[in-house]
Records
---
Amino acid sequence: MAWVAIEFEGVQKEVSAILMDKVLVAYAVKNYLEMLLLSHPRRDIRDTSRHPGFKKLSAGRTPVLKKLAREVLRIEIQGGEHSGVYLSFLLS
């Protein structure tokens, strides 16, 4: 099976279509939107790195994704090589 890369613009359009009229839940979501050169209505974004309930786990500071996964989801992540993308999509 041959893998074919999708052009950036194609991925951008696909992701934009998926997100249309949806509430986006992710960790540090601003970073992902910036990478894709996309915007999303602020009222439809739930950033787990900024959620007051999760900030309590880190004494008011931005919680580390690894700690959120352990404390909230009861799973261990980032033990070796890691990607925050996986958990962000898992949470959404």
---
Amino acid sequence: MIVLNSPARGSSVLIVLMLATLGAGCTAGSHDEGRGAAAAEPSTVENRRAAVENEGKKMPPMRAPGEEAVPSQGEGEVPPQLLAIFQDDLARRAQVKHDAITVVSATEQQWSDSAMGCPQPGQMYAQMIVPGYRVVLQANGERYAYHSDRSGTFVVCSNGLAFEPMK
């Protein structure tokens, strides 16, 4: 039994109790609001399996940022003018003529940051999706991976190290 000495103290205790009750009522219903009809427990294994399958159809699974190690590949083609820039760079880099260069692969990419798939130790990069391309060229039996954005900024990525374009 609570004995209150003053009316002011009794009022503040009453207000605290009312707020606690009100808060408990608000949080109890909020957990089930987003579930709608799925809030009721299915009764059989088949019903549970169907409920899980329906939940999966509502929203596709999402990956956490940074979880994807390999950038996604698209079906788009590398613009010919960008491919020519890469071939010019490789001709200077490997000291070969253009006809000695072969295109091994050329794919559209969605890089996870501005490092374009070739981050350097100690460097910071903007964390944003960078649409671009990955082109692998071959000259003199060596392969060179060109990573670029759509505007033509690129690095040559070899063994995890980025090399700037040749001047």
---
Amino acid sequence: MAEPAAILPVLPFSKVRHAGSLVFLAGELPLSENGSIPEGIGPQTDLTLRRIAATLAREGLSMADVVSCTVYLADRADFRAFNDAYRLHFSDPLPVRTTVQGGLMVEAKVEITVVAQKHG
């Protein structure tokens, strides 16, 4: 999945960092290739996690390698619908997770950051 072209200004952080066997991904947003954001928490969660999966694939990893997720929801009322979409992207053993409500820097309903572990 390509990165949205010139949607956000160049920001002062790395998208991916490695520390030993751990791979840290910066917060991911539900931005489509043309920069649009789908309506609703379900489609936004799905797109965000597909973007994470694409970044992990470029690092030789998959969603099965994710050990930790931090989730930021703009509206706590979206928590149940978020979980319904989220669980479709992971299998056991599930990553540990922290979910908080917070204001996001764009007009999205969700932002997710993950830590994955390389094996072998």
